[in-house]
Amino acid sequence: MNNEKQYTFIFAGAGAATLQILGNLLECPQLSNANILIIEQDSQKKNDRTWCFWEPKEKMEWTPYVVKEWEKIQFSSSSLSLNKSLSPLTYKMIRSEAYYKTMHERIRQHRSIDVVYDAVIGHHEEDERVTVRTTNNTYLGTYFFNSVFDWGLVQNQKRYPVLQQHFVGWFIKTELDHFDPTTATFMDFCVPQLGNTRFMYVLPLSKNEALVEYTLFSKDRLKRASYEREIRRYLNTKNIRNYTISETEEGSIPMTSYPFSKHNTKRVMHIGSAGGWTKASTGFTFTFIERKAASLVLFLKENKDLSLFEKRNRFWWYDLLFLDVLARYNNKGTMLFSRLFERTQLATIFRFLDEKSSLGEEVRIMRSFPVGLFIMQLIRRLMRAFH
Ligand SMILES: Cc1cc2nc3c(=O)[nH]c(=O)nc-3n(C[C@H](O)[C@H](O)[C@H](O)COP(=O)(O)OP(=O)(O)OC[C@H]3O[C@@H](n4cnc5c(N)ncnc54)[C@H](O)[C@@H]3O)c2cc1C
Fold it and tell me: Do 191 and 230 meet the contact criterion of CB atoms below 8 Å apart?
């Protein structure tokens, strides 16, 4: 079946990227009445994501959705135990369902936005329009934004390293008080590394409730039972034996410097993780989506060629080199992160991860790492570029 109406913007997927862009579009007087179509394959999206991010405490945009904030960060490994204030930042948690619900309500109130529950299976670009194919229909748009991540794209190439941040988490309630609700355990490397970069991520919601997540930065996912065995073992080492599990979450976030934007064209743009908006060295995406969504809407007001939107910065190179090292020496993550947290001020680390640090700070951060390892990798990367 063909749909003859031509939308100004078609979005594939209604996750964080599409909804944040949409939030900005609806605030923009020149674009808020554009005809928009959102195609999402899952009509039952609920709490499928727990988004955490850091930002200045006084920033209010996400306040209606924030379920918990932490003022302090804990980092642990066999060589370092650090518990420090994150001030002037705080670490915040959002559960996705509340955000989806609010955005769906806003969408329902807009007569110029249509939502279709169907799977996008392809698109074809012509001079003046893009045809988007779904399982049951085809749709026409002037611009097409795609947030459907394609693992095949990154896994069928060898030029850029590809890791995943993969995890299983349990929301638990303990019989006794075990947690400090003011402190988020960002990384606890005191778990067997087994040749990879493995750590626990513990987000206490109260003294006896927490999200406990077993996380790896590595190439391949594990069987679900392996993540759960490690969570059980970790809780045991903390003397946490009597607890109930209220919810679980699992996921895999791409960690790669693959240049997704090379697939952007005049009328087609890849957004969110599918557009490379995930920070390659950490998997953090939420704040990058927030920034990109705001600048994309400013860009759209000028009606430009979409392929001109993305610009590569020096942080892309840092991430590439870091991932090169982590992919080759996957067991060295605990050492690399310990040295970073031991030798650098917390505020500087988070500015660096936010891509807002100065060159001087970046040089100091680089000197906290084993320089020889990175120089060797840089040489390998350069030699590869010339062959
Ligand atoms: C469990 C989990 C927890 C995370 N936690 C954090 C965090 O704490 N902090 C952080 O910064 N980042 C986090 N991330 C990474 C990132 O922020 C999220 O993945 C974020 O949702 C990415 O937004 P997106 O729009 O790119 O993709 P998504 O939110 O995944 O949206 C893509 C949408 O496309 C839909 N879709 C898929 N295929 C099709 C198709 N063929 N046709 C139509 N629709 C389709 C999906 O149903 C989905 O709704 C997390 C990721 C996961 C998986």
Answer: yes
Query: Does the reported pTM lie above 0.90?
Result: yes
Strands 197-206 and 81-85: unpaired
All residues at 6 or more sequence positions from 137 whose CB lies less than 8 Å from its CB, including other chains: 1, 2, 3, 116, 118
Q: Which of 39, 41, 168 to mutate to test the pocket of ligand 1 (most atoms within 8 A of CB)?
A: 41
Per the CB < 8 A criterion, the answer to whether 188 and 156 are in contact is no
Ligand 1 center to residue 345 CA distance, Å? 31
Distance CA 21, CA 146 (A): 12
Task: Tell me how crowded residue 259 is: count the other CB atoms within 10 A of its CB.
Answer: 15
The string of pLDDT tens digits covering residues 152-197 is: 999 999 999 999 999 999 999 999 999 999 999 999 999 999 999 9
SS3 137: coil
Contacts of 363 (CB under 8 A, 6+ apart): none
Question: What residues contact 82, with CB distance under 8 A and at least 6 apart?
Answer: 73, 74, 75, 76, 341, 342
Residue with tokens 């392809």: 122
Nearest-angstrom CA–CA distance, 100 and 97: 5
Q: How many CA atoms are closer than 13 Å to the CA of 383, on its beta-carbon side? A: 6
Tokens encoding 358: 């100065």
Ligand 1: residue whose CA is nearest its atom 47: 42
